[in-house]
Amino acid sequence: MSGCKPDLRLFYACSAPFSRLGEMNKLLQRSFYERDTVTVARELLGQRLVRVLEDGRRLAGLVVEAEAYVGEADRACHAACGRTPRNAIMYGPAGYAYVYLIYGMYHCLNVVTEREGFPAAVLIRALEPTEGIETMRDQRAGKALAELTSGPGRLCRALAIDRRLNGRDLCAEGSLFIEEGHAPAEVLAGPRIGIVQDEAARQRPWRFVVAGNPFVSHRKP
């Protein structure tokens, strides 16, 4: 976790092929989230995020991009200024959803990690849509498939995720949870997007993406 410039061609070999729909329905257990946040961020790639609407419709997508935010010492983390009513869920048990609003219009979904009392979470930045795509299109005003969930605000709008789901237990079936999927063949690691706090926070290679996936979000010039 040094502040040195990362190698953006960092690969991680994984044994299973990526993007097989409907083969596994087992929920990720709390022990998955109770580990080191950077490890969780990398290993969330290929897992299936599921949103069940009030009418029973199921929307889902495979995680293809995630970022780690680790403790009060991480100047990019919401906990950098200590515990507040907004970030309190980050200090709780692992495996819960931390949903916040940015710019007064975009929601972002995070998964709380590590031990209780230590504030850390993984931001889910992009999904590969797999279920309920037409409903996602309706909620994204008919956007093209590649634009439905290729960003944290986009995926939350497509899956109808907002502050009402803040604090939701992702380890239990209900309106929001994460199922086991398949690890991608190749993963790239690099700096997190939009970090301006300090050089160390900017350079940490804590953003993970599925190599070559068309649904990964893109850094603005």
Short description:
The chain is of the alpha+beta class.
Descriptive account of the structure:
- The protein is of the alpha+beta class and 221 residues long.
- It has one domain (30-210): 3-methyladenine DNA Glycosylase, Chain A, CATH 3.10.300.10.
- Helices cover 14% and strands 25% of the residues.
- The chain contains five helices and eight strands, in the order ααβββββααββαβ.
- The chain has helices spanning 30-33, 37-43, 133-139, 152-158, 199-203, and strands spanning 48-52, 58-70, 97-102, 106-112, 120-131, 176-179, 187-190, 207-210.
- Strands 1, 2, 3, 4, 5, 6, 7 and 8 form an eight-stranded antiparallel β-sheet that branches.
- A hairpin with a 3-residue loop joins strand 3 (97-102) and strand 4.
- The longest helix is centred in the N-terminal third of the chain and has 7 residues, at 37-43.
- The two termini are 26 Å apart.
- The model is unreliable at 1-24 (pLDDT under 50).
Structural class: alpha+beta
How far the N terminus sits from the C terminus, by CA atoms, comes to 26 Å
Alpha plus pi helix count: 5
What number is the mean pLDDT? 89
CATH superfamily: Methylpurine-DNA glycosylase (MPG)
CATH architecture: Roll
CATH class: Alpha Beta
Low-confidence stretches: 1-24
**Topology order in helix (H) and strand (E) letters:** HHEEEEEHHEEHE
Radius of gyration over all CA atoms, rounded: 16 Å
Beta percentage is: 15-25%
The total domain count is: 1
> Can you count the beta strands?
8
